[in-house]
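Fold this: Peroxisomal nicotinamide adenine dinucleotide carrier
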Amino acid sequence: MSDALINGLAGAGGGIIAQLITYPLSTVNTRQQTERDPKRETSSQGALERMCQVVKEEGWERLYGGLMPSLVGTAASQGVYYYFYQIFRNMAEAAALQKKKMGVSDGSVGMLSSLLTAALSGCVNVLLTNPIWVVVTRMQAHRKESNHAPDQGLLVATEQETISAVEPLPYGTSRVIQEIFDEAGIRGFWKGVLPSLIMVSNPSIQFMLYEAMLSKLRKRRNSNRVTALEIFFLGALAKLGATVVTYPLLVVKARLQARQDKTGDRRHHYKGSTRDAIIKMIRYEGLDGFYKGMGTKIVQSVLAAAVIFTMKEELVRGVHFLLARQAAKTVKLKPV
């Protein structure tokens, strides 16, 4: 089994575990990001308060809306990302070793090479998995009418749009896929792909910081041995730095992927372009609109990244141990 495949499978496993732990925070954050009315009280609510409100008005299940496609997306994204990251990383290390033989470097992969490796992996990941995240965003942003609200036979598709007709079918994956296709055809599944591609800088910065801190820790200790707790904190710190820098792009992407308001209010309807979304957000919400829900996102993404890094490294270590053990048994049983 190749290192790329081992890392890809380990990344997918770590991503699924992290998603299961942090999904309610992710749902709340999507709702905060797609809230477009600056006068609404919910825009300033904290994560815990917002979570309690969702449970009270809509039930526990709404915190897990879109969980299944999200798990599929997470497994696919983490698997694709780590698989290609390891391939590109191996290429970068081979190039660095070649330069060392030529006497022009110390043989280590530089920060620029680490950044490029993560960026290339991220671009491949975005192009392959964007349709899944469009579906997930719609399902997370979908809000059903409170049981305590007047009985009007309505369902609220997002926090921005009320549909004036009864919607008997559950807002499931198949329905969302059909809805997206009816709105914009195949192109609808790649809404927000431009900010998503730019958002590649987030994991790129994250991995650059992670690799740099990990390398310094190993050099200081003069050993490659790093504990799971240390990996947890290194992953958390790396994700914190990357999230603060790139959060506005994440809000723009969520706005484009969420179901558009068609009530006639220009503030709530984007034409589908990143430029149009940015201009309208600045005009109607100000710069504050680009940072809605950032506190929730920091908690969710930092916790998720720390879990992913920890679980991924532990899974890789476990697989290598099992493979080495199996190889030793094979050698022992082999006739002389």
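Confidence is low (pLDDT under 50) at residues 146-168. Residues 3-317 form a domain with the Mitochondrial carrier fold fold (CATH 1.50.40.10).
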